[in-house]
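Repro:
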Amino acid sequence: MKLGKNEWRRAAVVVLGDIGRSPRMQYHALSLATQAHLEVDIVAYGGSDPHVAVKEHKSIHIHEMTEWPSNPRSLPKILRPLLLIFKPLVQFFMLLWYLCVKIPAPDVFIVQNPPSVPTLVAVKLASWIRRSAFVIDWHNFGYTLLALSLGRNSRFVALYHWIEKQFGKMANGSLCVTRAMQHELAQNWGISATVLYDQPPDFFRPASLEEKHKLFCGIDKSLRTPYSLQDCLSNEVLTTYDDNPNVTLFTTQTHTDISLKWNRPALIVSSTSWTPDEDFSILLEAALMYDRRVSALLNEDDLKREDVFWQEIKGGKQYPRLLFIITGKGPEKEKYEQKIAKLNLKRVAFRTMWLEPEDYPLLLGSADLGVCLHTSSSGLDLPMKVVDMFGCGLPVCAVSYSCINELVEVDKNGLLFSSSSELADQFMMLFKGFPGECDELKSLKQGVLASRSSVNWATEWEANAKPLISKVIFENSS
């Protein structure tokens, strides 16, 4: 049975999190509205703006719940365990209020998992009350994420696992992000799931030279402000920039002509949620190793005059300066910014920033390499950030774990590493001769560009998600 315009009217997309930081659920909403012609209600927390295509779509309606406040530091430690019980209770009743009262009755609920508690319980109850179908989109397992902080042997983790499994089996249908997760759900959970690989939407694409220049002009001031007293970007001769706003670290505009600078830094982007499942120290150590190895290879003399020293580094000498732009928000961001400020780096600079949803694809499409530190609490999910990078034609160096090869093909669209030393080796190999003679980096980029046109989110959703949603709605209404 086809999902047609006149057969049913509404879907509800449920996220117990920041909708602006839930790209896959935003894409679900867009596909439900544009490909299935449904009215879509998104129930989620606010915080970060979703993409403009979601915000401005006439058939998508966003309902922002009030987010649970951060745990007050003044609360005595003896009372903090009570929050583990009280917080999900408050979230449960808030979800029920929105799902059963605030939004019109949907034909199907599509819920992001994790978090599992209280989300799956609330959505299952709401689907029963409103006689709606109930579909889970499995991004990962909630109990494995909880185990990162409480440990695998915690009773809370065991209870969480039981709730996640029992209510997961009550869904009318399931989607998941990898074949490895599909196998785990089938073999150990008794759940049949359809694989829907993450794919970037059309607005993730390589940036044009004009788009790069405009972006770099917009963030140039932030790039020139170091965390420590000086680094390889802030020590450039800056007199020309004061008089010419059309010159950036990467580009130059003369009249209508824009060109990339021959001695520009190599731009490396990493997106992180600044959480324990992404060990950012690996990247810091690899950057420090690159800095020291290049300095030793070129016999650089620390005793040279500062102006001569920085000008020679700016010149390249086979190995470029590396600029790491780290995007994202999260609890460990401040800790790592303090560590960055203490590093004594000559050829490497770090900047952290949060970009608007429309600017993030432009940054990826303007970069030379992406780095992914995602390790997966379950070992069964794939990082959406790598999908976005591939959509923008950006090759990737990613942490190796059990199912990452479902996404990253070594020596075709990226490389895998298991240690900071291995990542530093990859930087040395990929950026030697940058920007003109780095053949390995160019080969990976060509591999990404060759594969990005073969499939996209719309075709994946049409082939895998739409038939499942059509089926569960039909069965639920029969």
